[in-house]
């Protein structure tokens, strides 16, 4: 499980356009990666809308953002279009990125145990080090908390 101070894993995600994205591509810049269980569900929709509403503020701090789930690119595109999301989404179809970040966990609902994505957010500094980790995220106010943390980090050269 990744912790603050760890280097960001060199993993590959597929963007909605099929382009491969790696957190290491953002060296020299700040990056927020948030993991969420499923497109177009109430909590995940609210979280994506909250990050989208603050996208311009994140940009002012020199921070890139993207959301990650196991949903495919087609589903991400429908989700983005339906809610006019401003934050890019990436897909982790085989779960390898969730594994690398420690977000593929055992969950329980109504006494039934199953594996799923933990709602978690990682703020990565310009040097590729994980600066902050939020696990078991509660959506209300979360995007604002992440923005405040991003404002406190310097971009390389600033």
Task: Write a structural description.
The chain has one domain: Glutaredoxin. Helix content is 28%, strand content 27%. It has five helices and nine strands. The protein has helices at residues 42-53, 55-60, 73-83, 96-101, 142-151, and strands at 13-15, 20-21, 30-35, 63-69, 89-91, 104-109, 112-117, 120-124, 130-134. Helix 3 (73-83) links the parallel strand 4 (63-69) and strand 5. The radius of gyration is 15 Å and the shape is globular. The relative contact order is 0.24.
Q: Which short descriptors sum up this protein?
A:
seven-stranded mixed beta sheet, 158 residues, alpha+beta, Glutaredoxin, 27% strand, globular
What spatial order of strands do you see in the largest sheet? 2-1-5-4-3-8-9
- At the fourth level of CATH, the homologous superfamily is Glutaredoxin
Q: State the total count of DSSP E strands.
A: 9
CATH uppermost class: Alpha Beta
Strand-helix topology:
Blueprint: E1 13-15, E2 20-21, E3 30-35, H1 42-53, H2 55-60, E4 63-69, H3 73-83, E5 89-91, H4 96-101, E6 104-109, E7 112-117, E8 120-124, E9 130-134, H5 142-151
Parallel strand pairs: 3-4, 4-5
Antiparallel strand pairs: 1-2, 1-5, 3-8, 6-7, 8-9
What would you say about this model in short?
It is built from five helices and nine strands, in the order βββααβαβαββββα. It is of the alpha+beta class and 158 residues long.
